[in-house]
Amino acid sequence: MPTITIRHLSTTCHQRLRERAAENGHSMEAEARLILDDAVAPPARTLTQALMEFGLANGGITLDLPARTDSPQGATF
Questions:
Q1: 3-class SS at 23?
Q2: Alpha carbon distance, N-terminus to C-terminus of the chain
Q3: Rounded to whole angstroms, how far apart are CA atoms 18 and 32?
Q4: At what angle do helices 28-40 and 11-24 cross, to 10 degrees?
Q5: pLDDT band, residue 73 (cuts 50/70/90)
Q6: Rounded Cα gap, residues 74 and 50, in angstroms
Q7: d(CA 67, CA 27)
Q8: Which helix (H) or strand (E) holds 53?
Q9: For an engineered disulfide with 31, which of 12, 21, 62, 64 has Cβ 3.0 to 4.6 Å away?
Q10: pLDDT of residue 75 exceeding 90
Q11: pTM of the model
Q12: Tens-place pLDDT, residues 16-62
């Protein structure tokens, strides 16, 4: 597995990493790995993005939507 060394880490950053690791029950090394993994992970797609990508990949999607009304049908207040 690859290894990196981070030099010149500020005292404040080191202390915050130590505290965060302790709060999460991790070693500082494990906590740093989680932080780095999260920082470089591709952004999560939203449902809207996934649907748009699906539609584009499949020639588009057409939805037949009912006409809007002032109040939902069957709603009781």
A1: helix
A2: 62
A3: 10
A4: 100
A5: low
A6: 32
A7: 58
A8: helix 47-57
A9: 21
A10: no
A11: 0.57
A12: 999 999 999 999 999 999 999 999 998 888 988 888 888 878 877 77
